[in-house]
Amino acid sequence: MNRIGRTLLVSLAWVTLFGANTNREPDGLVVHEWGTFTSIADAEGSPALWAPLIGRADLPCFVHRLLPGYSPKFSSNGLVRMETPVLYFYSTRAANLSVRVGFPQGLVTEWYPRASKVNPIQVSAEGFRGGHIDWNVQVDPAAKVTLPESRTPSHYFAARQTAAAPVRVGDETEKLLFYRGVGSFDVKVRPSFTTEGTLRVRNESGHPLPLAMLFESHSGITTLSIARGLGKDTTLAAPRTVAIGEVHASLVAALTAEGLYEDEARAMVETWKDSWFEDGSRLIYLVPRPLVDAVLPLQISPAPRQVARVFVGRIELASEGTRKTIEAAVLANDEKTLRQFGRFLKPLIQQSEPLSRNQLWTPFVGNLAARMEQERSQGPFCVQ
After folding, report:
1. What is the rounded CA–CA span in Å between residue 310 and residue 354?
2. pLDDT score of 124 more than 90
3. Within a domain: 139
4. Same domain, 310 and 328
């Protein structure tokens, strides 16, 4: 075989192993991670207490859970829902790794594959403390694995659409390590609306925010305002009407610029597009890496040659449009519209002056919130 033929075969082998994306690292272990911190801002921009464990069942039943069913004890206190962080591994050869993710101000609630140790649980007046999760995992780029599935759709599966190496823990296999939890840590980004209706973002993290997006969707109209390199105090420009495809593309580009491979960035947006871009108002921003490392200290042994950790912060906002939608729905006894706000309904209602003043509306709102919580307590708790 001539030199050109040999070169072509080597090139094809690399494409098979790592996919068509040409920015894969050729030597050593590389680890990439993405995830989301979800919270709700009060009128001043501070994180509001809410019940982050309440929500529709969205994970397959094969995922391991700290709480197999619903427990109000663990749903009543929290500032942040840590949603679907996933760890991807890239290696040219098989490797046995010890992986620990610490969560000093939180509690790990779901994970897959099977972990060797989770938490322990410590509950204080300030919330959950001392969480962590450990895996002893085998990474094997050449392994042929069968991945678990469910009969009905789940956004969990979109995260697999990358060229990452398969991982094995005991008899469980995946394309990633997945975990999720609830936290009591302070959110250092404080968005609040000015009297003129613009959004002011106070960044108390001590680090510039690479990107912040004010996204709003009301009555079928989608608007967006983007700012980059946010310092301590920034007022975003007035939102402009956009197509949702433009929003997706902007976020994929930003995630890639922060260190994810393009297929990872697309997998992240695909996983969360129905949630991030549902009706309502929210700030979506890229969390500075030092904050991610402080909230979720990561230890991997043997140490990777390179680690990228790209997290999105999602902060729900009680904008004028959101408040008007909720107030009109309450006045009309429009339960269908109110239910669309799901787990965010209660804290958003608390920021409506007319609703908080009018005692006639309180029973309707309170009864609906109680029924929604009761329905969640009766399951289903997973996607079959």
Report:
1. 40
2. no
3. yes
4. no
